[in-house]
Structure formats: C-alpha cells, structure tokens
Sequence to fold (559 residues):
Amino acid sequence: MLFESRKQLTLLLLPALLILGALTLYPILSVLVNAFGSVDYASKHYLFVGLDNFRELLDDFFFIAAVKNTFMFTVVASCAQVLLGLWLAVLFHRQFPGRRFALPVIIYPMMLSTLVCSSIWRSWYHYDFGLLNTVLTWLGLPAQEWLFNPDLALYSIALVDTWQWTPMAFLIILAGLQSIPKDISEAAMVDGARPLRAFMHITLPLIQKQVMLAFLLRSIDTFKLFDKVYVMTGGGPGNATETLSMFVYKYGFRFFNLGMASASALVMLLISMAMTLLYARKVMKGGKQ
Amino acid sequence: MRRYLHGLTVWMMVGLFVLPVVWMVATAFKSPGEILNAGARLWPEQLSLSAFERLLAGEFPLLIGNTLMIALMATGLSLLVSFFSAYALVRYRFPAKLDRAFLLAVLVIKMMPPIVVATPLYSLINQLGLLNTKLGLVLCYQVYTLPFCIWMLLGFIRDIPLEIEEAAAMDGAHLFKRLGFVVFPLCAPGLVATAIFSIILGWNEFLFSLLFIHTPDKFTIPLYLANFMTEDGTAWGELMAAGLVSSLPMLALAGYMQRFLLRGFSLGLK
Fold:
C-alpha cells in the first residue's frame, strides 16, 4: 500500500529523467541521427546519406589504425591489470608484517587523477632527464624513446594505466578471495595439494566471477582511453597512439566533420554497450528485496 | 624463511606502486636546479618551497577554487536528484520491469565513453549560452555524476529496514516527511561517501572541461595540468607541486574511503 502510488513514483523520478533526457538521451539520439547524415557546419543543413559515413570510416586509414590501437590497448592493459591484480590479491590474502599499513598505501595510484598520473609518468619517460632512462643507463642498457618510438609508445601508455588501475582489479579480486569459506581453503591444505595446484583447481574457480568482473570493468574503462593519450603523445608519433576517443575528438572538434565524428562515436557506443550488458548480466542478477 | 620471502615480495610490490607518488612529493620540494641535475637522486638535498611559491603567485589558487566550486555544485545537484530516484527504484513497484530498464540505461550511460556525447553536448551548451561557464560544466558533469550517484545510493537505501518507514507511516508521516526525517538521516553515511566520490569525479574530470572551457582563468585543475605539461616540458617542480596539492585531499581520504572503494569504482558490485 505504502509504495503503490504512481503519482509519487513519477514525481520522485522526474528530476532524474529530465536531466538524463536532456544531457544524455538527447545527445545520443542526435549522434544517431548525425551518423547517417552529412551536416554542413556553417548552415547546419542536414542531408541523409545512409551508410556513407560508415563506408568512409572503413576506408579511412586513421580509423582502422585507431580501432587497432584501441583494441590492443584494451586487451593488453586489462589483461596486465587483472593478472597483476590477481597476483597481488593472492599475496595480500595471507598475513604479513605491516599488512594493515600496506593496504591503504597500495591503492594510492587509483586515488590520483589521471592527469596527475600522466604528469608523473611523462616526466619519468623524458629522454634526457627521465628517471626510467637514468636507471636504464645506470644498468648499462640503452635509453628508450618511451613516448616517441612508434613501436613502444602505446605500451608506455598502457604501463601508466596499469600502474594506476591494477589496485582496482586487486581490490575486486581480494574481495572474492576473502569471501571463500575458510574450511574450503583449509581442506585443500590438509589434502596436501601443492600450493599452485590447489590455487588452480580450488581457489581460481571460486573467484572466477570476480576475475571476470574485474576484467570487464577494466576493459570498459581502458576502451575509453583519451586523457593519457591527449597529454602524453597527442596520438603520435605518427598515429601510433591514436585511439577511437581521439578519432572522434579530432573529427568532431578539429575537422568539424560531424557525420564522421558521429558515426565513429556510434561505433564506440555500441561496443561499450555490449561490454556493459555483459557486466550487467553478471551484476544485476537477483531482484528487489 | 618462506614467510619472510612472502613479506619481502609484498613490500617490494607496494614500494613499486608507491614510488611514483613518492617521486612526485620529493620533486615538488626540489629546487629548480636540482631537478634536472640530480640524476636518479630521489630525495631533495635541500627542501625548497620555491615551486609552491611560484604556484601560489600564479592563478593556481583561483583555479582550485573554481574546480572545487564546480565539483561541489555538480555533486549537490546529482545527490539531490539521485536521492529521490534511487529511493523510488528501491521501494516502489514499477510497471513492466521498467525499473530494471531504467537502471540498465543509467549503467550504460555511466560506462559509455564521454566523447560519444561530446559534439551534441557542445551544441546544446552553446545554444544555452553556457560555453566557458561554470554552470555549463556543472550541467555536463551530470553525465558522470548523476548515473554514478543513482547506482551508488541504491545499495545504501536498500540497507534501510522497511519496518522503520512503515512505523513512521503508521504514525501519519507522508512521503516527503519520511524522506526527510527517516530515510535521509539513516543513509547519511552513504550520502557522504557518495558525495566524496562524486566530488572526486568532478575534481578530476578532463574531457568536458577541455572542450567547453576556453580561457585560462576559468580552467579546471586537470586542464591547468595538461596545459602546463604541453607548454613547459620540464618545469617538473611546479607541475609536481600542483599535482601534489590537487591530490592531497584524495590521499588523505584514502584510508576512510577504502571500505567504499569497491562500491564506488565498480558500480553494483559489493
């Protein structure tokens, strides 16, 4: 009886619906419309062109490069973060001296803003004065053009992202480990299973869900890659670090080609939606209380 | 022996993850000469405040105020709006499972790359005459903060026992009275945690401020850092001082926020 009134329900939801409608639904719909049209920037005249923009995208060398780079970055960075996070979670699952102090400290990177992270690492990557090359030279290894070598630049950025976000994968997986009932892990020990075998056959299947969720969340996030590229390489050298977000940005705000910008934005939205739905299927199970 | 090895490995990893942060702090306190000449020397020979002094003499303090104001306003708006909608989503019966559809749509918005809506949002803000204004950014930030707040508050409101509200209703408290005097106080800790995360979202936001703010005196902190980096390649002292000052609130809150981090960063995961 208490929560049946449609009028109250509408009233409660209305502000959110208005804001989301104006600031997200309307923009998404206009991206949808513009993706199938050609818009003259000066006169705002709209011409329906069907799939022309998408055909042009597929022929566009930069778009293909952006897709490849984004895919590589997403896979490499997410995998690195989940694997490293898994390892750290296993390490932290066992008691060690000072664990209480180590936990808040290791999540520092994810508390910093992306821009602060980028500025630290941009300094570290500096060819002449950067810390990394100083260490390499000291070890007798050749100095690297971290951000200016086309074969290396994307991975240098992936390293920054991995440093910043491994703590998140770590936290998710650690929560999974801590939810395993004690008797199960003890039973494995008593059985005399080797630690690695016990981990692969008993522990890992039990935290499979958390590992998958961490991977999905990190993929959804790494797929957006923009800030780090914008301030560290600007998409270069050449187009070695051009990502889909950079592509949309350049077509929308530098070349003022609304059709192409919207078509590529739509592609991004669909990919992101697919990943989000996978995530939601895992998380939204179970109804209301 | 193996126990020591384990402890040593973990602390080495912790050290590796914290090293860049330590380097930022150390560099902020180095004198300009020492930064480039000292090679791999981590800690400054002499603590120097010159980077901070130069920073404070510029527009940085003003921009801190700007950014904080925008983040606070965006959070205030989102928190108010999401409080009502999260409450409705938790308590009310929706026709045709519309609540799940709504939540899913909100999740999709939260997860999508913000660049997707950047061009239409630009023309919208432009038509409203809000380009290069704080209010414009406050509105744009709703794209991030509102979906976040809705999802985050769901869990906190779910934790409030229904019986308390039913008792209040028996005593004759109508909807808004219950919201104000029962639900709001009971989920105050959740509201605070949500607000902190949302403020951080606004404080760190880069893309929309890059696109919608054009004059340096209106920059947000991330935009200021970006500009600094691309204009002056090796003024690391000031850059790190600026980074340090802008990160202090977050680093200080790290311990407190730890128990909310999972909820905050993963949406829907507990």
Observations:
- Chain A has 14 helices and two strands.
- The mean pLDDT of chain A is 90.
- The CA atoms of residues 57 and 258 of chain A lie 13 Å apart.
